[in-house]
Design brief:
Elements lengths: L23 E4 L11 H8 L6 E5 L5 E4 L9 H13 L6 E4 L3 H6 L19 H23 L6 E4 L2 E4 L5 E3 H8 L29 H6 L14 E7 L6 E6 L1 H4 L4 E7 L3 E6 L2 H9 L2 E5 L8 H11 L6 E6 L2 H6 L3 E9 L11 E6 L4 E5 L4 H12 L6 E5 L14 H10 L7 E4 L2 H6 L7 E9 L5 E10 L2 H5 L1 H6 L26 E7 L14 H18 L4 H8 L4 H14 L10 E9 L2 E12 L2 E12 L6 H20 L5 E2 L2 E2 L18 E5 L18 H13 L17
Parallel strand pairs: 3-4, 8-18, 16-17, 20-21, 24-27
Antiparallel strand pairs: 1-2, 2-3, 5-6, 6-7, 8-11, 9-12, 10-11, 13-21, 14-19, 15-16, 15-18, 19-20, 22-23, 23-24, 25-26
Helix pairs in contact: 2-4, 4-5, 11-12, 16-17, 16-20
Amino acid sequence: MNAPVPNLNRRQFMVGSAAVSSGLAIGLELPFLISSAEAQTTTAALNTPEIGVWVVIRPDDTVVIRMVRSEMGQGTITGLAQMVAEELECDWKKITTEFPTPGESLKRKAVWGSYSTGGSRGIRTSEDYVRKGGAAARMMLIDAAANQWKVPASECVAANSVITHKPSGKKVSFGKVAEAASKLPVPTQIPLKDPKDWKVIGKSMARIDNYRDKVTGKQVYGFDLTLPGMLNATIKESPVFGGKVKSFDAAQALKMKGVKKVIQVGDTAVAVIADTFWQAKTALDRVTIVWDEGSNGNVQQADILKRLEEGLTAQDTFVMINKGDVNKAMSEATKKIESVYFYPFLNHAPMEPMNATAKWTPERCEAWVPTQDGEASLAAVIAASGLTAEKCDVYKIPLGGGFGRRGAFQDYTTQAVNIAKEMPGTPIKLLWTREEDMTQGRYHPIMMCKMSASFDDKKNLTGVNMRLSGQSILASVRPAVVAANKGMDPIAFQGVASSGEHSISYNFPNCKIDHAMRNTHVPPGFWRGVNINQNAIFMECFVDEMAEAAGMDPVDFRRKYSADMPRNIAVLNAVAERIGWSKPAPKGIFRGIAQQHSFDSYVAAACEISVIDGNIKIHRLVAATDPGYAVNPAQIERQVSGSFVYGLSALFEEECTVKNGRIEQTNFDSFGSIRLRQMPKVETIIIPSGGKIWGGVGEPTISVAAPAVLNAFYKATGIRLRNVPLKKSGITLI
């Protein structure tokens, strides 16, 4: 269902013959960002004859921007609106948004492109055609005004939703000429502004999503949704992945107040439908379920670790980089070093557990879903409903955290529809408990890594070998991609790839990087930052180890092997200078540093820590990021800080382990996160270097805080920590 981003052409820019509210409707095919919207309002607005609507200008000069990607607090809606406003030259205060449903897009042959929100793509894969859409609208509005005045369009300019004829001083607002503009041909040549002329892009504009409601508790998330006549449900799936329901006894539950039904959902789960969630939950606790766990019920954490350890020396690997002759470099080395690192399973653990509301009849199925990908949700609804696509639709509800869990994985949506089918015509809201959310995740892949390096008699680095051993996300989620790559999962190498948006930050003389794929019964998923989280720790901590073996300063060592990578060097130098790397640290303070290239952005972090009774206190945390272009600097700062919270929580607190085939951690008492008092202020440096490629923001920086802290800890204690989370070593963040 994920439609590719379409190329912009004349048909996609077609102006509707009848404009919305006698205004201008300009259609663009684009993947855009969703936020909250009343489904009824959106549907009504879309019942118009225009094709591929993107921008609507109403008679009162309101600019309506339609978006389809998901707003999860990252501020992408605001950034995308800034790009449209920049080229459109509209009044920022008069911008509003609408959110077409994926069903409407499907009817129009995917005119809005991909609804998927992840991989830091919200801005970087939208910027070109979004800006062209705003520019085309501006050109057509100017042409309409020029025709009305019978003057050359070249004599007219637009600013702040007003068109001015420069020689005469005549003015007219966008809304007054929108209907006339809608009847004009769409320009085929659409020049964009030079970045030096930007007035809105690059500014810290106020967010246009309703953040006040979020902080005051007024925002209605999926968990809060109410519909007339709605019932509630909760579910319990086999605690062992791959297990099935053998039998269940619902006699006690059916006697309880408010309980409507107890049902089996597919082969793997049992659900209770009741008047309220609490009634459903307490009733489900009274249902006796016998599970058929299969052979997976015997799997222990030690079994998984043993399998990964075997992969560290296996011959069956997928090679990403094989430069020079590493084996020869190792055999001729005067000195060799080797280290083994480990990164665990991690749950997404959003504050809002999985949920969806569905209403099914033999004629139509609708679902209200907090989703990162409306198209994926719609595909799940269609498949589960048994109805044709034109009889199904999904309404986007604000989501209380996603981090990758609510995108490709729509198990909760499928469950909601299957439950709703048991009571046709009744909307049923499925709410997962926290325990269900923790034990039915799609987990960050577990991974081990053996790093090796060789040196000659002058301490010069001669070779680097990086062996990854662990899960493949794509083998589970998108096996066709793995098949197309002859069995290799290319995203396993994020941050250490040979080329592309996740390429390695170093040019080592001889280098081999490969992956021994060792999958488990625990389903992997796209966890914020995905594989750069562990790969940055593996590489950046070992770079410090190599620098020590070479007798070099860690920053100088990085500069030497990134010398032909100016954007890497720029962010590295920026954090080194800000942290005061070239000067002695205050007594009792120790510094660490790390860098990374991922999601087409270049990032680095430096920190100052102290170690008190074996625990870590972070005094300073400096981050530099080069995303190519900075659309909203204030939002970038928030994104960087937020990503560090996520990355440091994983470093210090978080791990999921397996016992008897099931995830042991069931709530935040055993899967915690760092607290506000522990989090230092993040000093953010933004280096927009420009160029043709736009990078991401929300995920690249998540990876560099952890290795910087680990490197600083070694400076403080002489102890290399290679196994996370640090709580296993008795180390906490204070």
